[in-house]
Amino acid sequence: MSKNISTIQEKTILNIIESKNVTEAIKKSRISRATFYKWLSEDKEFRDGLIKKQQIFLDQSFMYLKLLNEDAFKILHETMQKSKNEALKIKTAMFLIDRLLKHYEIEDLNSRILKLENQLYEE
Fold first, then answer.
1. pLDDT tens, 89-101?
2. Residue 80: strand, helix, or coil
3. Half-sphere exposure of 25 toward its Cβ, with a 13 Å CA cutoff?
């Protein structure tokens, strides 16, 4: 972390990442809610440190979910192929198609947003 962040601020950032909510984190850190929100609003080093740690945590979580996702799709594929329950096969197929369509929708939206951002920055 940055040299400009105090030890208690570093501890608070770690507690925010590891706790269920802000209330739990500030109790572990032994600071007041007002102090936490003051740091968040007025201390750029603290805010940037928190955002960086949250992004690292999210990236790690996403990588783990990607690994689990592979297994989940294998199970769905096996269910479609091996199940004797036709309703379950249909429901599984519909789920997979729905997810695929959502993926394409998100990709389309991302593409549109990127184009708009590029146009905005060109002006």
1. 899 889 989 988 9
2. helix
3. 20
